[in-house]
Design a protein that fits this description.
Layout (H helix, E strand, L loop, with lengths): L2 E2 L12 H10 L6 E5 L5 E3 H17 L7 E5 L5 H11 L3 E5 L5 H11 L3 E5 L3 H11 L6 E4 L17 E2 H5 L16 E3 L2 E2 L7 E6 H15 L6 E4 L6 H14 L2 E4 L5 H10 L4 E4 L1 H9 L13 E4 L6 H11 L2 E7 L6 E4 L13 E2 L4 E5 L19 E6 L6 E2 L3 H7 L6 E9 L5 E6 L4 E3 L2 E3 L1 H8 L5 E10 L6 E9 L9 H9 L10 E4 L32
Parallel strand pairs: 2-13, 4-5, 4-6, 6-7, 7-8, 12-13, 12-14, 14-15, 15-16, 27-28
Antiparallel strand pairs: 1-19, 2-3, 9-11, 10-11, 11-21, 16-17, 17-18, 19-20, 20-22, 22-23, 24-25, 26-27
Amino acid sequence: MEYRSQDPDIDVPRLRLDEVVLAAAARVDPDRVAIHDDLTGERLRYGDIADRVRRVAAALADRGIGPGDVVALHLPNGVEFPILLLAVSACGATSTLVSSAESATGLHHQLRMVGAAMLIAHADLTGVSGRVAAALGLEEDRYVVVGAADANLGSAGSCPAGATSYGDLLAHPPERLDVAVDPEIHPVCLPFSSGTTGLPKPVILPHRALVANALQVASAVGMRRGQRTLAVLPFSHVYALTTSLLGSLVRGDTIVTMPRFSVAGAVRLLARERITLAYVVPPVVTLLGTHPAVDPADLSELRVLVSGAAALDPAIARAVADRLGVELLQGYGLSEMAPVTHMMRLGARMPVETVGTALPGISFRVVDPQTGRDVAPPPPGGMTARGELLVRGPNAMLGYLNMPAATAEVLGEDGWVHTGDLVTVDDRGRVRIVDRLKEVLKNRGFQVPPAELEALLQEYPGVADAAVTGVVGEDVSDERPFALVVRNVSAGPGPSEEGLLRYVADRTADYKHLVGVAFVAGVPRSDAGKIMRRQLGGLLPADRVPSRVGA
């Protein structure tokens, strides 16, 4: 059975991402602030966006960047992020987004995997990006540093040797480039996802996918234009990219960014900036709802919290909504769908146990994971049996870059994206996530693929085998990676827990850091050699909460 969104379809213009956002910005009061960076105090006004995008796009084009090229953005949230993202789009190139927390090893791997022609990084991250730029042999005009003290218009004096200043790009005369690409199939962004299993893979999102999802989210939120949105999640995460950044810009909202979440900082901004809307992840919801430093009276302007990227405990959702006097909407998505597919609706009184209904233009099915057949439709007032959620819509990926086998596994010939999540559906089309088939962990809303950490651990001297599973952290939605390691007894005493923790921490982003290591006699594997993940919880130390990882 195919379920369709109950909302009217939206018109997805056949335009590049930059063309859609700049057209929306042109309809907003030019003096309205688009982005306010709380850390630097900088403000980007709607009337300045087009000029800056055209300057930077022309500068990139003069440096040979165009269709077929990939530009890596290694940046925190700030006023430069949308300018660079849209400028890359305007010159016909493709962005790949890198977390500010990424290690040099991870950054190097990502850039090699996508064949990046240019790296644009923040000045605070040059300790990592500089090493990678040197290792890749990037020329001076292909390594750009943002955030130098004098980077507003043109001096590169404070840039490290062998780099170009973002100010040099901004100093270029503005030009309208004549770039002909097909928005339906031309990639605009390559976020990384583990899909249903395995190592992170670059997801090919065409212009149409990001444009569609920004418009879908803006429509589904249901609030009037001109909200004041708090952006606490990194724009390098596709959830924040589409919702907090692109969705807010096409609505004409003001976005207030903070570099790193803290309860005190968030409360200060929510009150001082009169924030009305925030896209968050479950740990942030929990802190806002339970922390003693949060006084509901300080958040009197806040109207809506949208929680996504991981499951939210229903009891916490109710408590937070009651305490803060806000409407809390839970959503669901995956990078392969750019990413949002379902969301609760404002004023609809949907059960907090659900992730709401499909966004405009989204279709979905629920299939038996063993047979591939659709489960029976729900009875009146009831729910379907559980099954895997399959989705499709204008926001779907084209596939994984240079990975036809992985693409075929997730994106079948019929165009349905296999999510790897088990769900039930009620007779009103509201979806409830009940379990998952895919192996990926979720920590603070970020994907943590066990296979990546397992491969890293198995490179360590004295490790014979390893498996990584999730243990529940302070927030019940988090799954912190925990390693179960088999020592090679023929190689001496073998590795220590401290050595393995440090080894992984030096080579991965902080959200992938192990919270512990236990040494075990063996890792349970099937006859085919696949780790039997449901058995890993029984090998954890007694003081650890059992894993919830799917088979």
